[in-house]
Design goal:
about 300 residues; three-stranded antiparallel β-sheet; about 35% helix; alpha+beta; about 20% strand; 9 helices; nine-stranded mixed β-sheet; globular
């Protein structure tokens, strides 16, 4: 076996270089500054769904440049973007590799609608796809027949188990399972679908608000094309006290899931305390984008040296 050779063709390698040139030109035209932040740092993330890769004695390989970029924003950097390697333990498969590439950018003064529009302006010409926008609630109800914000937990769990979920899921896990296995496959493959207003409990680092029915929703969006999630964006949380509460809640869920708690990033909390201006930010997977551009079905077709050959 030629395990030394790249799994992606040289044409795919060149296509990636072309894509990155397009991305950089897009941000150059808009006077968004490219930055570089640490790939190895003292803190990982507390998110229960993300397991970091520890480097003993040094800290954690970063699962996203988000925390450091927010520290730059708090220092007055203005609009910034980064094309950065990201690392996540256990993420390997057709659409995942433990090391991958994120395009992440932040826009001080942008509300979520403005950032969604900028994402569409970047992606629609690249993909040749028309955008459509739909709320999480409407999309989920249309695909499953259940309202994710008002349905009883046992109803959603039963619906998930009927769709093949293992027994023992809680409400949030059932919604996540149905989103991944029922809702996402129902999306129009050819559209650039923007999903907004996620459940409030899925806010992560986003602000929340009440929708027209008084339900708590996250000021968050995701973008899909060809049944692949490409981007995940937030109206960013700027309140240090609320951020600390969310770190604590994340760690409570990690402990309940049998995972170790992660120390809260004190540098991020200090930056928020110093003052982070209202802003929106988004992370986009470069390999995912190249997969939909080329029709690749597995990430190694666009990644020269996946973990099996690295």
């Amino acid at each position: 076996m030629n395990d030394w050779s790249p799994s992606a063709t040289l044409e795919a390698v060149k296509a990636r270089a072309d894509l990155l040139r397009t991305v950089r030109a897009f941000f150059d035209e808009r006077a968004v500054m490219e930055v570089r932040t640490p790939h190895l740092a003292a803190h990982g993330v507390t998110d229960e769904h993300i397991d970091g890769i520890e480097v003993p004695g040094y800290g954690w390989l970063q699962s996203s440049p988000e925390y450091h970029m927010k520290r730059l924003l708090a220092a007055g950097s203005g609009p910034i973007y980064q094309i950065a390697p990201a690392f996540r333990h256990g993420e390997a498969g057709g659409r995942h590799n433990p090391e991958f590439t994120l395009l992440e950018w932040y826009r001080p003064g942008f509300d979520l609608a403005a950032l969604v529009q900028e994402c569409v302006e970047l992606l629609a010409p690249i993909l040749g796809a028309a955008p459509r926008s739909v709320t999480f609630r409407a999309l989920f109800a249309d695909a499953t027949g259940e309202d994710p914000l008002s349905a009883r937990a046992d109803t959603l769990v039963a619906r998930a188990e009927a769709a093949g979920a293992p027994a023992g899921l809680d409400y949030r896990q059932a919604v996540d399972f149905l989103m991944a296995t029922v809702v996402e496959p129902s999306l129009d493959r050819d559209a650039l679908t923007v999903v907004t207003d996620f459940p409030g409990w899925a806010a992560a680092l986003a602000q929340t608000r009440e929708d027209d029915d008084g339900a708590l929703v996250a000021r968050r969006f995701e973008i899909y094309h060809r049944h692949l999630e490409l981007a995940n964006g937030y109206q960013e949380l700027t309140d240090a006290d609320e951020q600390q509460r969310r770190f604590d809640a994340d760690n409570a869920r990690r402990r309940a899931a049998g995972k170790p708690a992660m120390p809260a990033d004190r540098y991020l909390l200090a930056a928020l305390q110093a003052g982070l201006a209202p802003c929106s930010g988004v992370a986009l997977g470069i390999e995912r984008l190249q997969m939909v551009l080329t029709g690749a079905t597995r990430i190694e077709q666009v990644l020269p040296f996946p973990i099996q050959r690295a």
